[in-house]
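Lab manual, section 2.4: Encoding a predicted structure.

Procedure: take the sequence of the chain (346 residues), apply the prediction step described in section 2.3, and record the output as structure tokens. A sample record is shown.
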Amino acid sequence: MAKSKQRASQRREQHKQQRFSGNQASQAQARKHGSSGQNRGYKVRSKRRPWLLVVGTLVVIAAIVGIFLYVSHQSTSNTAVQTPVATDRTVLKAVTGVDPSVANTVGTGGVTNLLHAVNGSPPVLKGPTGKPEFFYAGADYCPYCAAQRWAIVVSLSRFGTFSKLPQIQSAESNISTFTFDGSTYSSTYIDFVPLETASNQPDGSGSYLPLQKPTAEQLQLINTYNGPPYTQSQGSIPFIDIANRYVMTGASVDPQKLGSSSWQDIANNLSNKDDPITQAILGSANYLTAAICISTNQQPGSVCNTPVIQQIEKTLGKTAVASTAPQTGLIPRNGEAIVRRQESIG
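Recorded output:
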């Protein structure tokens, strides 16, 4: 009996040991699987972290670039184009090749004629190649010069070719225009002599950086014809002398009409006879063309013998001095400093 109880006790002890060993094995197995799962999770997270860093970096870079572009756009949209750049080809083609039928239809365009016949019979003003000279004095900052240059380019393109014509904006009013500083023009009929006295870049003292300095002969022209009795003020810009036959001070193209129009806007409308800007530009250009034709003895005939130019020529010798001053800027006698001045058109 005692032996039977002893064997039963031994069997119970064996079962306990087996259960204990099984539990230990299960726990070990569980720890093994758990450790393996944790390692796999760590490896997955380790692989994901570099991608998150890359994506985050790209987002930051994109934000910085976006801010830079926005600030750059705001800056350029609120300031003048100070550095001359090559004129867009389509703009240059439009302004130098206006359809004659449109110009003929526009006629004077309702603009005020500012050309005055020179008193007496002074010698014909001739340019570097001995042809009648078209002398222009202005400045890049000047909005009146900016507006008038459109008409000058249209008119001169009927007698020759601009192979180089940089575009800029005036410092005042940001009028889209061109500069004759650095331009290149050739003609069989006239010599174009431009003088841009100042840039559109401030010099820090309330004026603008100088560009071209007038020669003694040019100053003599300015002192003789850019004042009474041809205009009420002395030394204003823009100023034009066409072969000492006709002189003009001020702008017959109102810069307020051009306003914030871009070069493309203005050029695209030069084929529209009903556009107010086109009428002002072509009307002024036709007046200049008539004065040039008188100076070149009606050459070329294809330009000068048109009915509209012939009709305008008949009125040029009858021009009286304006009762009030035209739209101008001011250039002092010494031709070095520029003082800005604005007056209403008469």
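Check your result against the sample. The chain is about 45% helix and 15% strand.
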